[in-house]
């Protein structure tokens, strides 16, 4: 049960001063709380004996008030320390969790659903933070504070009465063991169900246009209703076990009260304790009610925290399948890119997605990559991003194997515009500035002009300050592509990779963008994959892929002369363009 505290040892060692002060003060308050009942019992005994005076009554009242003020002040400090630690571990875990996700490769996100990761980053981290705050409180109160109160009952009143009153307590321990295991298992299932629900919400919101287009609203509502019903049932299963804690403890504490009162009256009549002792004892008995409840809360919160920490650690312990070189080789500039007999297969694939691919690209050259859908165009370009472990063969940059170059340096050279554009829920300006922090308007407009987006600014409600919505929902497909291109252009990378990034723009706009690329990126390397051959006619080298193999290569004219797939596709697109113009 306490494995969660052991696994959080790194945090307690880091914040040992905070927890040392907090726990000492918490224990100190527990000790101080023993004095008011004893003072009240002494006062009652003085009244029974008839020896009470105004001075002694004032003294009793004054001492109790002073104790209450001291307890109030110390309680404020220990609560600030313990619950401040709860907020601190939540911040640390969330930062560590997010930073870890930033280092993960695509294969990790293929294995883990977004909704489940969100559940771990929210509910699970909050459950762990409660463990180091409220959990530490219940741990101390259910052990040390309970021991102190029982010690006071035994030494300050009567050991016989104390032993009789605590007879029902073992029943609590037995019940807590049973309840604790049930809570752990059921809470894990409830958190998994919450992750499924998050996934469903994300899919429904991001795909709402498709859902409406196919008139699937009622079906999607039914699917969501079934998932929420499952979440409800699994959380109710947790609540049903949780609901047993308090009645079980109340029953056992009630038995203690009955035993304490009955046996206590018997001892008063036998003159073994005084009436004041019995009153003090009953107040102490009332004070152990919370520690009894704390036992239940401790089991509950530790099991929840343990289940949540297991889920968080499962994510944090996942290793990226692409690691930066331990002793990276420093490369000044990517002057030459070479692929020698590269064969690559995705982790989830059963066949090679690239086979014996070889090519050389010098700085300043443009490579065009064309081929049928699924021929391996995107796969080839992603080899330079190292999103997946390298396959067989060699990938060299400036003569250095890509595995020996640090990932940070490698990515700093690259500008990547994927097929599916990712825009953030910010303004057009902020999305473009993502490529260059704090870029001024002149620099932004230069990048926009290079992406042929300047004429579209006038159609946006607030120009550069127009909010694009989540994933750019307020922009058309062509506008999203050109904002993404502007973001890449403003970064002015050494190597620009355009993965079918012009598919949503018309032929005239495409021609303008390509001409801008040729002018603005003179002396820098560019790789373009496309289905429209007009986008790569200017390239220094064009390769045609088919099932991961390079089946044709050369310049535009050389490929036309080969009378292969490229020539066939080119003639077909020329006919289509002529028909469109007519």
From TrEMBL:
Name the Pfam families on file.
Answer: ABC_membrane, ABC_tran
Q: What is its EC number?
A: 3.6.3.-
Q: What stretch or stretches form a coiled coil here?
A: none
* Domain ABC transmembrane type-1, first and last residues per copy: 20-304
SUPFAM superfamilies, per the entry = ABC transporter transmembrane region, P-loop containing nucleoside triphosphate hydrolases
Could you cite one Gene Ontology molecular function of this protein?
A: hydrolase activity
Q: Which InterPro entries match?
A: AAA+_ATPase, ABC1_TM_dom, ABC1_TM_sf, ABC_transporter-like_ATP-bd, ABC_transporter-like_CS, P-loop_NTPase, Type_1_exporter
Group of enzyme by EC: hydrolase
Where the protein is mainly located, per its record? membrane
UniProt entry keywords in alphabetical sequence: ATP-binding, Hydrolase, Membrane, Nucleotide-binding, Transmembrane, Transmembrane helix
User: Organism's domain of life?
Assistant: Bacteria
**How does the entry describe its membrane topology?**
Multi-pass membrane protein
Which residues belong to any copy of the ABC transporter domain? 337-572
Record PROSITE patterns: ABC_TM1F, ABC_TRANSPORTER_1, ABC_TRANSPORTER_2
Keyword Transferase applies:
no
Annotated localization = Cell membrane
For this UniProt entry, which segments traverse the membrane? 20-40, 60-79, 127-155, 161-179, 249-269, 281-301
Query: Is the keyword ATP-binding in the record?
Result: yes
Q: Which PANTHER family match?
A: ATP-BINDING CASSETTE SUB-FAMILY B MEMBER 10, MITOCHONDRIAL, ATP-DEPENDENT PERMEASE MDL1, MITOCHONDRIAL
Name of the featured protein? Multidrug resistance ABC transporter ATP-binding/permease protein YheI
Source organism per entry reads: Paenibacillus pseudetheri
Query: Lineage in the entry?
Result: Bacteria, Bacillati, Bacillota, Bacilli, Bacillales
Which gene is annotated as encoding this protein in its UniProt record?
yheI
């Amino acid at each position: 049960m306490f494995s969660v505290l052991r696994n959080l040892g790194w945090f307690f060692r880091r914040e040992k001063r905070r927890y040392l002060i907090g726990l000492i003060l918490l224990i100190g308050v527990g000790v101080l709380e023993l004095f008011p009942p004893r003072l009240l019992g002494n006062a009652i005994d003085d009244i029974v004996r008839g020896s009470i005076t105004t001075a002694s009554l004032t003294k009793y009242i004054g001492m109790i008030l002073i104790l209450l003020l001291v307890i109030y002040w110390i309680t404020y400090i220990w609560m600030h320390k313990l619950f401040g630690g709860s907020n601190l571990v939540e911040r640390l875990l969330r930062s560590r969790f997010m930073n870890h996700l930033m280092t993960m490769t695509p294969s990790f996100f293929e294995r883990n659903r977004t909704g489940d990761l969100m559940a771990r980053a929210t509910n699970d981290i909050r459950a762990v933070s409660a463990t180091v705050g409220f959990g530490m409180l219940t741990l101390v109160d259910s052990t040390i504070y309970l021991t102190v109160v029982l010690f006071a009952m035994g030494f300050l009143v009567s050991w016989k009465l104390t032993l009789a009153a605590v007879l029902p307590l073992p029943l609590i321990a037995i019940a807590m063991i049973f309840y604790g295991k049930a809570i752990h298992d059921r809470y894990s299932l409830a958190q998994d169900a919450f992750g499924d629900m998050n996934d469903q919400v994300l899919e429904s919101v991001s795909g709402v246009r498709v859902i409406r287009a196919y008139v699937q609203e009622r079906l999607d509502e039914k699917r969501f209703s079934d998932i929420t019903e499952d979440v409800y049932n699994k959380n109710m299963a947790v609540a049903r076990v949780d609901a047993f804690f308090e009645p079980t403890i109340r029953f056992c504490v009630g038995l203690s009260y009955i035993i304490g009162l009955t046996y206590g009256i018997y001892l008063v009549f036998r003159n073994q304790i005084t009436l004041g002792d019995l009153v003090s004892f009953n107040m102490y008995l009332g004070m152990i009610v919370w520690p009894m409840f704390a036992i239940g809360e401790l089991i509950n919160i530790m099991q929840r925290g343990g289940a949540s920490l297991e889920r968080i650690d499962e994510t944090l312990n996942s290793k990226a399948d692409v690691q930066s070189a331990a002793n990276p080789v420093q490369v000044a500039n990517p002057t030459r890119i070479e692929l020698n007999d590269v064969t690559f297969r995705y982790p989830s694939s059963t066949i090679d997605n690239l086979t014996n691919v070889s090519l050389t690209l010098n700085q300043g050259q443009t490579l065009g990559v064309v081929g049928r859908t699924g021929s391996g165009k995107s796969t080839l370009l992603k080899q330079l991003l190292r999103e997946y472990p390298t396959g067989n063969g060699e990938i060299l940059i400036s003569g250095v194997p890509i595995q020996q170059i640090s990932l940070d340096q490698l990515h700093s050279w690259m500008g990547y515009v994927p097929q599916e554009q990712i825009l953030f829920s910010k303004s057009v300006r902020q999305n473009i500035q993502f490529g260059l922090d704090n870029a001024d308007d002149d620099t932004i407009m230069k990048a926009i002009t290079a992406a042929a987006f300047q004429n579209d600014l006038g159609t946006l409600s607030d120009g550069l300050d127009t909010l694009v919505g989540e994933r750019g929902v307020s922009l058309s497909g062509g506008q999203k592509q050109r904002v993404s291109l502007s973001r890449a252009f403003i970064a002015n990378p050494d190597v620009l990779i355009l993965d079918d990034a012009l598919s949503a723009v018309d032929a005239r706009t495409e021609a303008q963008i390509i001409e801008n690329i040729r002018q603005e990126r003179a002396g820098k390397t560019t790789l373009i994959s496309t289905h429209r051959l007009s986008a790569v006619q200017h390239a220094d080298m064009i390769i045609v892929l088919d099932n991961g193999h390079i089946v044709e290569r050369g310049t535009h004219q050389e490929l036309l002369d080969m009378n292969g797939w490229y020539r066939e596709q080119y003639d077909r697109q020329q006919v289509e363009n002529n028909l469109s113009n007519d």
